[in-house]
Design brief:
alpha/beta, Ribosomal Protein L4, Chain: A, 2 domains
Amino acid sequence: MKINITNLDSVEVGEIELKDEVFGTDIRADLMHRYVQWQLAKRRAGTHKVKGRSEIRGTTAKMYKQKGTGRARHGTSKVSQFRGGGVTFGPVSRDHGHKLPKKVRKRALCCALSSKKADGKLFVIDSINIQDAKTKVLAEKFSKLGWESVLIISGSEIDVNFQKAAKNIPGIYVIGQQGANVYDILRRETLILTREAVEQLEARLT
């Protein structure tokens, strides 16, 4: 399939052929869901922790005699029944990450790209290189293009001036093609790819 290429001034400068196996695949919501769950699980710090019975500081002496008091028999105040005691089966520090097959990850990314193309929310621009890192000028260009919630994927190297100017504009997020992921693609309304990003993504995913 072919798609027009524009520049930051909203002028068409050519067209590019998109590979169907990357931008025209069947959209599998289940694969994208698995990818997002895998991605978010890796982000979790896993530092949640409570003290168990063995970690509570206190005396090991028996609280009171075993018989004759009419009360329940207890050997320590560190158990969960008492205030300040340990927590039973509480959270512990751990890694929440899990494995996801490489083929599933590649297919899920293709599905995310294809979903944006199918919804008419995928656009290709010639380049994001600009002369001056002026946020006001770039914001005006985005306003004319109607870009509000946008993920911009460039080639391997991001133009420094563009990145500086764009980082102060709400709703605009810029990453290199090596960082392209399903979560960031789906959580923003519009997906913008540079010509270089298209070529590198196709080489990476086919």
